[in-house]
Design a protein that fits this description.
The protein is of the alpha/beta class. It has helices at residues 18-29, 45-51, 65-79, 102-130, 151-171, 205-218, 228-237, 251-268, 270-277; strands at residues 9-12, 33-38, 55-59, 84-87, 93-94, 133-138, 176-183, 196-197, 244-247. The strands form 2 sheets. A 7-stranded parallel beta sheet has the order 3-2-1-4-6-7-9, sandwiched between helices. The protein has a two-stranded parallel ribbon with strand order 5-8. It is globular.
């Protein structure tokens, strides 16, 4: 454990690549300690060699609730406290709503939503006892807006958003902070080998092609995961961190257009809303 009394202790899921790996490196490089989880901990061997005992690699499948509890306990026993808990483990599933199988839908929610819930529940007693701590939930611009072809992914992130907004209110009196990180398109493996895909229906063939073309235009200039490390450090060092924070330049414009459209629609149909009240 670092001798620096100002150093933080992190628990980061999905640390083998992408955001999780970059944030693990950033925390370690500044002298913090990290319990880093991955399905394959050999992906962390180079970091163990470089940073030594300040890195605790833990093999973990976040869909296993008992394993989540054990992993959080192991991290706490090793470092003596937890300051930052990052629920980053997750993946994207590509498939139109009609194309989804039950197994595909359940697997997406088990990882992206329930995995974060189980880790959060495991960490909360420790954070409450400390009277401090910061939970970072890696959501997405897809946690507040939605696009075709990734409906079940959106469902997992919208669920995480609602849960976390409630959580932030519930734990505020204990000194525990919650932040939803909402990235736009980044140069990670999210849409590559990390993703899963439904069997496409031929009736949607032309629509598939159009959606993928639009997605390509929307993500034409993806962000740099390595650059995101400076942003996440700014968040964890803030005295009053926000409940929500976009990562990348694209999400704000998407959110503004989406919410403006919602407000316009709600206002236009307010007469019906009042009619329903009686």
């Amino acid at each position: 454990m670092s001798a620096d009394t100002n150093a933080k202790t992190w628990f980061i899921t999905g640390a083998s690549r992408g955001f999780g790996r970059e944030w693990t490196i950033a925390a370690l490089e500044r002298g913090d300690s990290v319990a880093a989880t991955a399905r394959d901990v050999s992906t962390l061997d180079d970091l163990v060699e470089r940073f030594g005992e300040r890195l605790l690699p833990i093999r973990l499948d976040v869909t296993d609730r008992e394993a989540d509890v054990a992993a959080v306990r192991q991290a706490h026993e090793r470092f003596g406290r937890l300051d930052v808990v990052v629920n980053n483990a997750g993946y994207g599933h590509f498939g139109l709503v009609e194309e989804l199988t039950e197994d595909e839908a359940r697997a997406q929610l088990e990882t992206n939503f329930f995995g974060a819930l189980w880790v959060t529940q495991a960490a909360l007693p420790i954070l409450r006892a400390q009277g401090s701590g910061h939970i970072l939930q890696v959501s997405s611009i897809g946690g507040i807006s939605a696009f075709p072809l990734v409906g079940i992914y959106h469902a997992s992130k919208w669920a995480l958003e609602g849960l976390s907004q409630s959580l932030a209110q519930e734990v505020a009196d204990f000194g525990v902070k919650v932040t939803l990180i909402e990235p736009g398109g980044f140069s990670t493996d999210w849409a590559g080998s990390s993703a899963s895909r439904s069997e496409p229906l031929l009736d949607y063939a032309a629509y598939h092609e159009r959606v993928l073309e639009e997605r390509g235009k929307r993500n034409a200039t993806p962000g740099d995961p390595q650059a995101s490390a400076a942003a996440v450090l700014r968040l964890v060092d803030a005295d009053e961190p926000p409940l929500r924070c976009f990562f990348g330049s694209g999400p704000l414009g998407i959110a503004e257009a989406d919410y403006a459209s919602r407000l316009d629609t709600w206002r236009a149909w307010q007469e019906v809303a009042e009619l329903a009240q009686g």
